Amino acid sequence: MLNQAKYGPVDVITGDYLAEVNLGNDAEAYTAGTHSGWIPTAWQGLELAIDLIAEKRIKVIINGGALNPKGLAEETQRKLIDPRGLDLTVAYVYGDDCLHKVQSLLNKDQSALPHLDQENGDVKLEKDTQEFLARPEEMPVVSANAYLGMRAIKRGLEEGADIIICGRVADASPVIGAAAWWHGWREDDYDELAGALIAGHLIECSTYITGANYSGFFKHEISELLNLGLPIVEVEANGECVVTKHEALNGFVDEDTVKCQLLYELQGTIYLNSDVKADIKHMRIESAGKDRVRVSGVTGAPPPSTTKLAVFYKAGYQCELLVNASGYATEKKFALQEAQMRAKLKDLGMLEKFDVLDFQWVGRPAPNPNCQLASTTYLRIFAQARDKQVVASVVGAWATNTMQHFAGFHCSLDLRNAMPKPFLGFYPAVMEQNELEESVNVLSRRQSAESRKFIVGPPEQTEGLQPREDYGPTNPVNLDKYGETVMAPLGDVALGRSGDKGANVNCGLFVPASDDPTGEKWGWLRTLMTKQQMQKMIGTDWRDWYHIERCEMAEIRAVHFVVYGPLGRGVSSSKILDSLGKGFAEFIRALQPPFNITMGIALYDTAYVPQRTVRRHFMFYTARAQQAMEHQSFFFEQKAKLAHMLNTVGADAKTASFPACMEYPELTEAVTQLYQEACFASTLTFDQIQHAGMQMAPFSERVRVVEDAAADVRSRTMAVPKTVSRKRGRRDEEEDEEMSCSSYTTCNKRGRNTAADYDMVVEPSYCGPYVDRFLQPAWWTQVCE
């Protein structure tokens, strides 16, 4: 808050301090009188910035009041404004707390609290999701807060408030309220309100739009990602906006950071709010200068009659225990650990009493690791039950077997998370807006005077909800026209972001326009990424009761998915490690679908990722070599040996002295593929192979690369054919002309060897002598016959 006020002109500062779970976590302590009810950092921000706020006449609208917006407003008046004699008026928004209303409803009618996804017939809810509705005494509700809109905020500003403290309002509501007040919008100016809704969505998550949680972060220096500045939106009278930041603060705003944040926590092309529905199907995101991005094309419609209601209840107890294994036969080790614990829990009569008992293998050991940590993974044992003693039996069953453990067992000595602790269940409901009692209360500057209360009613016009758009690829392209394929990470073409919405995960993927001037990669992405492809990529995490919806946003070249179900009951009650769904998109981007080789799909080169492995340099050749697999059985038998050899080379690549290159007979394409696949499996890093290459004989003594690697390949040299274009799908002739042959022995700024005659050159020749040393000469004769 202080930096936003300090480093440039702003009219309004908004602040989103609430994740869904904040209110539930603090509810019991607030009721017991041991918690203030507001968010401490919201108070700290006001305390630090209050003088500048008064001096610059900046309006402030924050939801940091949480459970007690009235208390934070009065504290601000009493401790910050009155002692300084500042000319500021404080107000607070009231009406989101529906705890007593929900408790009363549950005692009368369980069906009076419908689930957010209940109307979607394709969605299957987690088995325990609605259990608390029938057992309110055993699983009591601790908090129930409705997501309010902008109407009370706008009215407070109209009544002269300078600082408005809110509780649970929708994340974007402060921005919508500020823009509606500033521009004098009416309640039915839906296009303008929708534009402000999206503006609020773009800046609601702090630095998520200035470099944080950004899938393209590796294109930037680490120094650019430290101490990021917060974003700013300049909302115009027509609802369009420009996203920017203070020039003096770190970070960056570009089309890709804005697209990533747009796609975060969406439910489809219609974005819902208590005040308006925003249609973002045809939304445009365009650069408007350095750290300035224009957002336009959003249209609006009347809001739904309902709003979201976040309900938290006492669901029981949970624990988690982490067990580590190193190296060999890890899968068998963890299987033994699970079998031991299940057997003991059965003996104790506890096994069938758990609501959740999950054994999750996290990570996989690196092949031929260069340190023990690279070989270490862990088993996450996660349990939930309503009975504390049932959960306590987990650590007891584990302790009983501690001297019967698998080979090399170890774990942290801090076992606090293994002890039973209460957890909250989450239930996202919907509530009619006309049942809310929403108001804004403006404090008097005289302590003895009463505050002024202004009641705001529900929206004057509402509109029913339609089923979300769900369809396959529009105008799909024939992928066969692009020719041969290779396997490579989806992240080489697509950026993206994912997040949670209750039990569901959303995932948006897009092709940066700057890397796809012809639109070929966008055609490839939207054609490839069907619902069936997404299900396939989810892999063994997929469950039959999950459901996928898919839509497209052509203007920003994005495909968007909602996967219903992976987070269970969601938020505080999810059993999965990524309980907020933030890692899902990065998992999908790491998977390797088939890429068409003639498209030149290599979006980011090694300059961005200095430690990128050898496999990046060899993935293109594999497609050609796949055509000749005459020696398949021998090929697969020897591949593991070659991978081991390459790792052995890598272990001392920075200190070893390599012998001069040796001539080898020409290899068949099958042997070429063998060598490439071995490099695929190796963990030798680019820095290591580059250093190793510098130890070799001068380039002039090596065999020059040839135009077609499939036709004439030697063990020491390979080249990517010109049909495989470089990073942006075209050759940069001017740069090629400037590069000399010395580039072959040193890594240029883009992290690859370049020369005038070739698009890309890689030289695995320095591993050749080790191939000869590791394998018997008879092998070469056998394969080359």
UniProtKB/TrEMBL annotation:
Residues 1-441 form the Acyclic terpene utilisation N-terminal domain. Pfam families: AtuA, AtuA_ferredoxin. Residues 489-590 form the AtuA-like ferredoxin-fold domain. Signal peptide: none annotated. Residues 720-740 are annotated as: Disordered. This is DUF1446-domain-containing protein. It comes from Meristemomyces frigidus. The lineage of its organism: Eukaryota, Fungi, Dikarya, Ascomycota, Pezizomycotina.
